[in-house]
Amino acid sequence: MKRLLSTLVVAAAVALNAASVEAKEWKKVRIGVEGAYPPFSYVDPEGKLAGFDIEIANALCAQMGAECTLVQQDWDGIIPALLARKYDAIIASMSITEERKKKVAFTGKYYHTPAKFAAKKGSGIQISRAGLKDKTVAVQRATTHDNFVTGEFGDSVKIKRYATQDEAYLDAVSGRVDLLLADSVAMDDGFLKTDKGADWEFVGPDFSDPKYFGDGAGIAIRKQDKDLVAQLNKAIKDIRANGTYDAIAKKYFDFDVYGE
């Protein structure tokens, strides 16, 4: 009887410990951000991180009652650094795709915008395999845009890949590429509406095929940190409900960036 009672006590203790692990409250969260993707994430003239992603990250931490540390990371290494525990989550306009889900977990989306091509005004370029034949397209390396142009037009175009979107814009202005492919909002705000992009314009339709672009931009977390996924999902829902999300979005966009 004593042995049975002892076994039951141990089992109860194990169950209680497991429950406490599952219910872990994240009071300190390190968040990986890029800082090179305006208007979502950039470094302002004072050297501070700014943008929609940055404000959403801070709002989510405030909603969770967590102390946040933002860690700037180049895009190429942003998932490897998460897995190496350099930070706990990524808020960097990362599309929720099946390929990425093999490596990391995601929250639900916190915004969803389409991709689009841009070319010099009056170029007459048609967005089709024939229309893009032998044209050079600039994309940021290891992005959904890179995957899309490779998968859909790779047999027609020449693809130039860059570490940052700004590097792609510089080559566009220098005449080294014929087209850009990027998020439509990021490219409009970060290039087309600036002096350097004055001679460029959007061409062709919007692209949002889930095969390449997933289900919108979400927050990436290590798969084992399910409690953090749950807390961030709740925080996204809460800031959507209490008006915080809309207040932030209106600073950057004149349309519903969250999407349908």
Q: Care to describe what's here?
A:
- The protein has 260 residues and is α/β, with parallel strands linked by helices.
- The chain folds into two domains: 26-112 and 215-252, D-Maltodextrin-Binding Protein, domain 2, CATH 3.40.190.10; 115-213, D-Maltodextrin-Binding Protein, domain 2.
- It is built from ten helices and 13 strands.
- The protein has helices spanning 2-22, 52-64, 78-83, 98-101, 144-153, 165-173, 184-192, 210-213, 226-241, 244-252; strands spanning 28-33, 36-37, 41-43, 49-50, 67-72, 89-95, 105-111, 115-120, 136-140, 158-162, 179-183, 200-207, 217-221.
- The protein has a five-stranded mixed beta sheet. Strands 10-9-11-8-12 form a five-stranded mixed beta sheet, with helices on both faces.
- The longest helix has 21 residues, at 2-22.
- The N and C termini lie far apart (61 Å).
